Amino acid sequence: MTYVVGYSPHKDDACALSVAAQFARSDKDSVHAVTVVPQGWEVAAGSATDGDFTAWAQGQGEASAEEALTLLGADAGVPIAASWVTGRSVPAALLEQVEALDADMIVVGSGANGAPGRVAMTAKTDRLLHSSPVPVAIAPRGYAAEPGSRFTRVTVGFRDDDATWHLLQRVADICRRTGASLRLVTVALDRPPMYTAAVSGAEDLVREQWRRQASAAQDEAVEHLVDAGFARDEVETVLARGATWVEALDSVEWHSGDVLVVGSSSTHLLTQVFLGSSAAKIVRASPVPVVVVP
């Protein structure tokens, strides 16, 4: 398996390199960093403008690839490579490299305007999610893995729908292969408190009904995993609630070596990876790397 990393020296993309190397170490894979530099507009061949821009693009690309190799080589422990390409669309250029390299995942960093330690999706990341045929991993802003570390626990955002059950099977296969443990988390928001006693009591009943339904669905998933060969103590389940998505995700215990995996919530053929509003908010609230799976 090859992990393609979108890398730019002008952004906080070192975190994406860190996540990609952590993935690769987990399953003895390779990392290929790709820098996309702007593609020039059509000008007369051999003109001064054409030559100047070509030289500038080459300089930017070569410097970025060299920087990526330096950062990866410090503690990669896996096969690494770096290259640069030109393109007018970064997402499109990255997807072309995914096809050319027969890669299985794209890894990108968070936007510079995001909160430190959280995932921040940029407009380019959003376009990538809408068109990628392979999973897209997003590193939290400022993320730095422990030297030589691997991903040791996979947390699946579990919704008890067909897409999530399919995702669970894929993740279970990966966990068996890599030795990572598996955890299911179901997330919901608490509504603002109601001051009328009768309404407040009704809200409590709804909350309890959700808890029972979510627990029953998770128990069914655990039984499925046990039938597939997992021991019961190898699978954790968590119900996460909070007034905000950040609060709900923070109520879950996270450790170094954790990764959150969420599935697509669209079956539309024109959108390869598409996040519904709830899934997108969970991704943005995550304090650990997130993988969005088509």
UniProtKB/TrEMBL annotation:
It comes from the Bacteria. Residues 4-139, 151-294 form the UspA domain. Belongs to the universal stress protein A family. PANTHER family: STRESS RESPONSE PROTEIN NHAX, UNIVERSAL STRESS PROTEIN UP12. This is UspA domain-containing protein. It comes from Phycicoccus elongatus Lp2.
